[in-house]
Amino acid sequence: MPQKSLFLQLLQESSTLLQKANRQLYHSVEDVGRAISQQHILSQVINYKEMRVLGLRRSGNHAIIHWMEKQETGNVRHLNNIRVNRNPYREKYEDLLRKNKTKDIEWWRQEAKGFFEKKDCLIHSYEDYSLEQITNPVFELKHDLYFGKSQDKYDILILRDPFNLLASRIKKNYRGVNDKNKTDIDVWIDYAKEYLGETNLLKNQKICINYNQWFADVDYRREIASQLNLEFSDTGINTVSRRGDGSSFEGREYHGKARNMDVCSRWKYFADDPSYRRLFNNQELLEYSQQIFGHIPGTECLREP
Hints:
This protein is of the alpha/beta class. The protein has a single domain (38-303), classed as 3-Layer(aba) Sandwich (Rossmann fold). Helices cover 45% and strands 13% of the residues. It has helices at 2-37, 39-42, 61-71, 88-98, 105-112, 131-134, 137-141, 143-147, 162-171, 184-195, 211-216, 218-227, 274-278, 283-293, and strands at 45-55, 76-79, 121-127, 149-159, 205-210. Helix 4 packs antiparallel against helix 5 and helix 10 (184-195) crosses helix 14 (283-293). The longest helix is centred in the first third of the chain and has 36 residues, at 2-37. The mean pLDDT is 90.
C-alpha cells in the first residue's frame, strides 16, 4: 500500500510538471505570435503614465500606492503584487478561468491578448523581489508586449527603516523573499544602495520614497506628488488598505485614521527578543539605516550585548 501511494504521488507530480511545461510552451508561442502580428498595437501609446513600484512587504507599499491612486485622475489601473517575467493580465485571466469566476473576465482576456484599453495611469507593484529579478533584461524586452507602450515611466522604490520593517515582517511571519540566494536583509541593503545612488539598476525616472517621512510629513508627500506629476490633495492618507490585510499589528482597526498608528515604534514589540536583536549585528545594515533614516530614538538598545 505505501508503495502504491508513493507511485500515485509521483505520477501526480509528473502530471503537474508536464502541464506546467505545456502551459509555458504555449505562452512562449503566443508571445512570439503577438510580437509578429501586433506591431501596429505595440507601437501605440497605451499608458500615458506608468508607475513600477517595488518594496519589501510591510514597507507601506499598499498605503503609498492607494494614496497615489487617489492623487491621480482619469482611468487608473493597479496590478497588485505581480510576478516578474510573467504577463500579469494573462496570469489573472487564467486564474479567473481556473476558479470559474466571470466578473470582468472579458476585460482581462482582452488585456491578456494584447488588445489594451487606454489608461491614464498604470501601476504595477512587486513585493520581495531583488532588483536583479525586477530588471531582468528578458522581462524588460517584453514590457510593451505585456503592459503596452507607456509615455512616461517611473520607477518607485519604497524603503522603510529596518527596525520597524523587520518587526512587522516577523509579526506577520514574512521573512522569506523571492530570490532564493538572498535574505530580506540582503534585499533591503540592495534597495538602500539603489536609493542612495550607489547602484543604478532602475532606468526609468526614479523616485525613492522614505516611508517613515511619507507617513509623518505632509510637505514630503506634496513633494512626492509633484515629482510624479500628481494633483496633490492628500486624499487617502488615512486609509488602511484591504490589500496585505492591513497592519501587521492592528489589521484594519485604524481605517479612516491611519495616521494615528504608531508605525515608527513597532520595534519595541520585539526589543527583548534575542533573535530579533541579533539581526542588528549587521554593521552594513545599521550604516545604511543611519544614512537614510537618521537616528531612531531608543533603537540603540538593540545593539547592546
